[in-house]
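Proteins fold reproducibly. Look at a concrete instance:
___
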Amino acid sequence: FQYLKRFDQGHNLDRFCYEVLSVEGSPAECLQLFLLHCGVVDPSWAELRNFTWFLNVQLRDCEASVFCNPDFVGDTLNGF
């Protein structure tokens, strides 16, 4: 949710990292963003769960990768 919210607001996500145990927005706002970005017109709860699980895994791996660390790669992958 934190990434999607910032993405919708046009923020640069290159230096953003998930803040553990922080709470942002309401459950309704979270659900609205998931529905907007999941890519399915009328998703089931299972499809929303799969979308959020997949997004979470991808973002966690991205944060852990040295190749996605702007301090390591500099501006060679700007916007990647």
